[in-house]
Amino acid sequence: MTMTSWLPLIVLCSSLFTGLIIFLLPEERSGWRTALNMTGATVKVVGVFVMAWGVLVQGAVYEARFTMGLGFDFVLHVDLLSLAFVSLSSNLWFLTTLYAVGYLKGSRNRNRFFGFFSLCVTASTGVALAGNLITFFIFYEFLTLVTYPLVVHQGTPQALAAGRTYLWYAMSAGAVLFLGVVGLQTLAGPYDFVSGGVLGSLEHIGPWEARIIFALLICGLAVKIAFVPLHGWLPAAMVAPAPVSALLHAVAVVKAGAFGVLRVVQDVFGKDFAAQIGVLEPLAAVVVATILFGSLRALMQNELKRRLAYSTVSQVSYIALGAVILGPLATVGGLAHLVHQGIMKITLFFCAGIFARSRNIHRIDQMDGLGRTMPVTMALFTIAALGMIGVPPVAGFVSKWYLAQGGIQAGQDWVVAVLVLSSLLNAAYFLPILHRAWFRPCGGEPDLGGEQARCGIWEAPWMLLLPTLATAFFSLAAGVFAGWEWSPLGVAEMITMGRGAFP
Amino acid sequence: MILIPFVGGVACLLLRGRAVAWAGLAASAVTAWTCLPLLRHVWLFGPVRIDLGGWAAPLGIGLYLDGLGAMFLLLTAIVGLLVGVYALAFFGRGREYARMEPYFWPVWLVLWGGLNGVYLSADVFNAYVLLEMVGLGAVGLTVLSGTNDSLVAGLRYLLATMFGSLIYLLGVALLYAQTGQLDIFLLAESVDGSFPVLVAFGLMTGGLLIKAALLPFHFWLPPAHAGAPAPVSAILSGMVTKASFFLLLRIWFVVFPDVTAPVAGQLLGVLGAAAVLWGSLQAVRQTRLKLLVAYSTVGQLGYLFFVFALLTPSGGAAWSEGWASMAWTGTVFHVFSHGLAKAALFMAAGCLLLAMGTDELAAMRDIAGRLPVVTFTLGVAGVSLMGLPPSAGFVAKWMLLKASLASGQWWWAVVIALGGLLTAAYVFKILSFTFVPVGGDDSNADTAADERQVSRNSGIPELGPVPALMTLSALILAALCVLFGFRAEEVIALLLRDMGLEPPFDAVLMGNFGGGRP
User: Fold this and answer.
1) What's the complex ipTM?
2) Model's pTM, two decimal places?
3) What share of residues in chain A are helix, strand, coil (percent, to 5)?
């Protein structure tokens, strides 16, 4: 083995071993645990950086391949798409770990928490690096398993119920996806992800067989990406601690679903073949329904985290929207949104965690005047919220712009209408929060009730604030410097154009 | 191979006190050790055949080992050795257990010898004798604790297994009367589709089905497995049920490959499917850990019977298809992975039982925090049972699913997927209990984590000590589930060392099936 096959493994194992070692540590050794976590996270970030450098500058190919003896290989392969996802997850892991260390200071079962947290990141790295659908599936299921302990971390009846809901959705979807994967492999044999799809070139696949497989695969992925009738677990899973929500929404679970849809549409079926067998239209209908429905439901929530959760339901589907619109510009927009949504949403959840942790604020009607008492946190929240709405120059604007352009380019003008409508809805559920926070007098501490210590400035500890600051900065930077070659958008363009998906 | 455990068993009878256990363990180790050269031989040179006393087939007692037998032998050796280590610690825990010890080791060693004998024997009558030994040994182990419940369960078990053997023996007798042969290969040449042969075939199958606890005949299994002490449950569920299944495979695919009718195969498949669903559903309903795991055995054994449906759509011709080898390998691999996982589960359950004094699921509060290794074992073994990657169970399920899709019998695939879901339901039912914290309302943990004094030991029932050897051997079994998930290739290669049929196994398994579309 050379370095080129070791590097993906190192990146994968940096969090795997971290997680396993953490399980063995005594609970009290929080210093060791933190050190270990940060080391793992640093190794991963560096590894990803080296890979990115190799792929983008030197044109190296990173691949680790093992024969499983079952008619398929276990493949870790680094292409541009996986690079985008893995750099997102590795960087956000670093920040979220920092945040979680601060957030969970003094609570119990932290070994278990950080152990599974690391495993969760391992799974999402695996999802990103998977070189074929089967490897993807292996990590996808692994992700379900290691997320469960995080969702039920509190062990309350509520948390257990949420965990059960999550499992039912995720396991059923896993079974459906499994059928799809096996079916596809039976039909088409072993294959790796290839840009532009592999199925189009195989003559012996009938359109109906392909449609059924497509439906199975997308249904299997739909739960994690939270497409509309299957989104129920996501708001329920909100009982988990804030770092977990951040992870669920921005890095691991939902993103893995979105990533999977991208892979299936673009690298297994190929957009052209998918369009040819006519499966993109139904998918588009689901995506549009999800975008609008998620926003509408978000509007009705009073609990901050639930509103954010429904917002995720809606926003993640933008990524899928990029996949169902024909034409390169939309693909660029969707891909860029994969990263953009991640950094913006994680900022929002970090902020929500800070509110909950330091002020015991969970509901939106408690947020009056929060801009005065916690100006920094609220400012960061504002940046991310504006980005979600799509206000320039925050990152969200860029991806929406490209999606709209892509829609027009492909002659699918309805996309613009959907985007406008959903942006209006986004504004409708984010702006009132901002209004309350900045323009209403502060309502006092909900749990103190009285007049004392009401409106003094009280900021979060640096361990919580610093990661939030970083992600908010990224959100802003990704928008401002979108034209730069190495920005998420630039990379997305490179992925789309450079991979020859569209001549 | 067969004799060492017997000798060891007798030696155990003569010894007293802890010496029994050490002698038993030594005999286990030697038995497992003697497997190695045999396995190596099969691995390198293919099937072995030895005729005892130099007499050739119709007269002498033939021993025969091929890839199939080797897999079962290997499973028994691995699980047997680890169960031995586990039992050493388990029975060394006080008077109540020490009382059982002098009985456990001899019976267990005799049982092990019987198992090895079944896997090695080349004729259907010897197989019967040895299987009988296994059955009686298993009953003996069931009643080991001597409680009322276990006696009742043991009696049921005894009746079921005797009845099964009797029917099987009838079949053998009829067959012998018809053909004058008992050796499996000579039989394979001389059976025809005549009526008495069919009846014999039916009788033998029926008898073995009872002993293998396929659905309508499963009634004896859960109480017997759940009532026994932990190492015994691991032996029963992990290994003993497999012996009858092994003979079924031999009879169906070696002795009667041309006689089996597609209808019969489908029927067994349907029963298997019913077992998968019913057993798993029952498991989900249980509130006691060991009963849950025992019902899970009923469900998991159901998977094994798909192979009969998959492989007999058109008699022997099916072997030429790529998916046939998939189905075959998948099934045997399922035996393998289930044996490991189930033994690990029962052993972990035993650890919990010792620690908590009860196996009520509701008592398992906060176990994840206090017995992390046991919980981890439960989790890993559960993952393998569910057939999720990366585990041996996944490999088995993958092959079964693929075989059923490729052969166009997609309905089995649906059942397999559903069964996986139900399995997930009961495994996570166990695990979810382990996450419930003890005492105190944690609902505000999100907000007030740092202010709250973490009260670790208030109001928690003390956990009894669990010997490290027990946890460790359970953990090793669970770890093996994962290991064999990654290194399935070698085990499969061992299995594919020619089972006497010479189906075109070689390249087909590794690659794409090309024409094998539904």
Assistant:
1) 0.73
2) 0.81
3) 75, 5, 20
